[in-house]
Specification:
By secondary structure, the chain is of the alpha/beta class. It has twelve helices and 16 strands. This is Acetoin dehydrogenase dihydrolipoyllysine-residue acetyltransferase subunit.
């Protein structure tokens, strides 16, 4: 008789992640789980997040103990049906540990998902392209001062059933630093150019913060290229913006100051540690990085307000739209959600800040995944 058993393994949340700490189990042995249920908390140098079960069944075995730090790919536990004999579970665990090719396979997988540079006109864009699928891929657009690592808890999960592409906007991350006039239109042209360079005629588009405004401009300027639109605390729907926090995220030059600046992005301040601040500072110190962000800020947030009003774009949208916003957003007030038309399905999240994709990861991924499946 053939039994179906699923290994729970240490996930690879971040691009540079090589190990993680099993902070705690949230499901006891013998507990029933559904695919997508949170079964454990994983702690990395950047963030603590829930780990979703990749399968439905019963948590038959907790192989790793809470508090253990383990390499990516290490066995944490086993999910199987209740009628699978204990001897079969033991054999499964032994076989998993004995596979001599496991390390090589994990290394090959990590290498294949590393970012690469893509020439897009005058730009060199840092792109991470993962997953496969026959339908239109999903394009992820990060916010002001961010980079493709802002999707570290989302991209690989969403790529289980389709192709998902994240990239650094011009002036951000490892991409080239020319941002032209710093306008949303300029950034949207770069996004459209990336789709063309990758030979993608149509894509689902998901944008956060400034990236949400870029996504709206992409819909406005290249409507035939957008299949669905998912917005996360997008710019362009309200005039108010916390320019002081944005300025601090650009100009801070000490770890402690940068950590305090980044904490404005989340409601749970403990999510932002010193290592995250150090990583951001390394990017800020690249040639042209701060100047590029200053140019974008001067154009998009002139006189302490948002420059562009993109509500007409959303009012006229003919594609399905989903909107996420944290009630405790300190960067762009949640009041902006009220300016979205009734045709937009809204998820207003209590006790969540400016980055729902990081603070409410499991629910966010589940909703987005379902939305994409509905519109495949």
């Amino acid at each position: 008789m053939t039994y179906v058993m699923t290994a729970l393994t240490m996930p690879k949340f971040g691009l540079a992640m090589t190990e993680g700490k099993l902070s705690s189990w949230t499901i006891a042995p013998g507990g029933a789980v559904r695919e997508g249920d949170e079964v454990a908390d994983i702690e990395t140098s950047k963030i603590t997040s829930g780990y979703e079960s990749p399968a439905s069944g019963v948590l038959r075995r907790q192989v790793a103990l809470a508090g253990e730090t383990l390499p990516v790919g290490a066995l944490l536990g086993v999910v199987a049906d209740a009628d699978v004999p204990e001897a079969e579970i033991d054999a499964f665990i032994a076989s998993f540990r004995a596979e001599s090719t496991e390390e090589g396979e994990e290394t090959a997988e990590a290498t294949s998902s590393e970012p690469k540079m893509v020439e897009v006109g005058a730009h060199r864009l840092n792109v991470r392209d993962v997953g496969r699928g026959e339908g239109p891929p999903l394009l992820l657009i990060h916010g002001f001062g961010g980079d493709l690592s802002n999707w570290m808890l989302n991209q690989d999960v969403l790529a289980r059933h389709q192709r998902v592409i994240a990239f650094d906007l011009p002036g951000h991350g490892a991409s080239s630093k020319d941002v032209g006039d710093g306008s949303l239109t300029f950034l949207a042209e770069a996004a459209a150019g990336l789709l063309q360079a990758l030979d993608i005629p149509k894509a689902h588009v998901l944008g956060h913060s400034l990236g949400g405004a870029v996504a709206l401009c992409l819909l406005r300027d290249a409507p035939d290229s957008v299949v669905t639109l998912t917005l996360v605390a997008p710019a362009g729907l309200e005039r108010a913006v916390n320019v002081e926090s944005l300025k601090a995220m650009v100009e801070s030059d000490r770890t402690r100051d940068m950590q305090q600046a980044l904490q404005a992005l989340v409601h749970d301040k403990s999510l932002v540690g010193r290592k995250m601040a150090d990583n951001v500072l390394k990017v800020r110190r690249l040639d042209g990085a701060r100047e590029a962000l200053r140019t974008i800020a001067a154009t998009c947030f002139a006189n302490g307000q948002q420059t562009d009003d993109l509500r007409p774009v959303l009012d006229a949208a003919s594609v399905p739209v989903r909107l996420f916003w944290g009630e405790e957003d300190e960067i762009l007030p949640v009041a902006g959600a009220k300016n979205a038309p009734d045709t937009v399905v809204k998820y207003i999240l209590p006790e969540i800040g400016h980055m729902p994709q990081l603070e409410k990861t499991v629910e966010f991924n589940r909703i987005v995944e379902g939305f994409l499946e509905e519109n495949a």
